[in-house]
Amino acid sequence: QVQLVESGGGSVQPGGSLSVSCAASGSNFSMNAMGWYRGAPGKQRELVASISSRGRTNYADSVKGRFTISIDNAGNTVSLRMNSLKPEDTAVYYCNADYWEFSALKRYWGQGTQVTVSS
């Protein structure tokens, strides 16, 4: 049973910084990529950033230059460093991990962690 345990998040003033991390465990398959999505009330969940098992990164245009995604050497923990935060970054941030299971890609989700940017 794959588990994704998120940590970090919280509240910060505009212009501040926060980090969120996600530790994956329980899979015997190859990890394809991990990433972060966010969801706000009334809005569709959107991709924030992703990183492949080879370290290739992808960012939403709205966070480029402000957010940095990284993964540890073991490929089990993904972190998102968020700088220059804006009120519009307020959302629940969800970690995801994609594994190749019997030639099919399967996605798992974390429980979500709240990030609030407000003065």
Task: Walk me through the topology.
Elements: E1 3-8, E2 10-12, E3 18-25, E4 30-39, E5 46-52, E6 57-59, E7 67-71, E8 77-82, E9 91-101, E10 104-109, E11 113-117
Parallel strand pairs: 2-11
Antiparallel strand pairs: 1-3, 3-8, 4-5, 4-9, 5-6, 7-8, 9-10, 9-11
Which key features would you list for this structure?
119 residues; mainly beta; four-stranded antiparallel beta sheet
What is the CA–CA distance across the termini? Answer: 40 Å
Q: Give the rounded overall mean pLDDT.
A: 95
The biggest beta sheet reads: 7 strands, mixed
Note poorly predicted spans.
none
Taken as a percent bin, the fraction of beta residues is over 45%
The proportion of residues forming helix, as a percent range, comes to: under 10%
Rg, nearest Å: 14 Å
What does this entry look like structurally?
By secondary structure, the protein is mainly beta. Helices cover 0% and strands 59% of the residues. It has strands at 3-8, 10-12, 18-25, 30-39, 46-52, 57-59, 67-71, 77-82, 91-101, 104-109, 113-117. The strands form 2 sheets. Strands 2, 4, 5, 6, 9, 10 and 11 form a 7-stranded mixed beta sheet that branches. The chain has a 4-stranded antiparallel beta sheet with strand order 1-3-8-7, with no helix packed on it. It starts with a strand and ends with a strand.
In short:
The chain is mainly β and 119 residues long. The chain contains no helices and eleven strands.
